[in-house]
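hey so i finally got around to running the thing on that chain from the lab meeting. sorry it took forever, my laptop kept dying and i had to restart like 3 times. anyway pasting the input first so we r on the same page abt which one it is
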Amino acid sequence: MNCYFFELTAFIRLFVQEPGTEELVRLMESLEDNRKLIAASTPLEVYAVIRQRERAGDLSADKASIALEILRTEAARIVQEPLNPAVLETARQLLDRSALHWPDALQLAAAIVAREIFHGTDVIFVSTSTALLDAAKSEGFQTLDPVHEAHQISA
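ok and heres what got predicted. didnt touch it at all, straight out
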């Protein structure tokens, strides 16, 4: 059985229309909630992006409100990896051995710790960031880029 860890650049596409949105929605709908993983910080990061786009005029107040309501619902249903000492230490180690920025290291660290918790389950790292996908591969993850690998999306 596979679980999917949705990093911020992929997860945001569920709430704001961007390339890969349709593929991600299809994937999310095909998965049981206990097979969807995110870092506990991701809902807050998505919330911030939606509000920034609303303030910039890229999203209407109505669309932002709808996106935020969907975010609340989805985030409550998905397994969230807490930002605990193990995640923070793993992020620090990633910063020592890679050129990742700290928010990206935190996302990948949450996926690494979640993979340890779900021992025996393949965790697929979903992102649209080339740097994060490369780093995830070097950490032994199967990866999925919903923008460039839409043909591979299946549960």
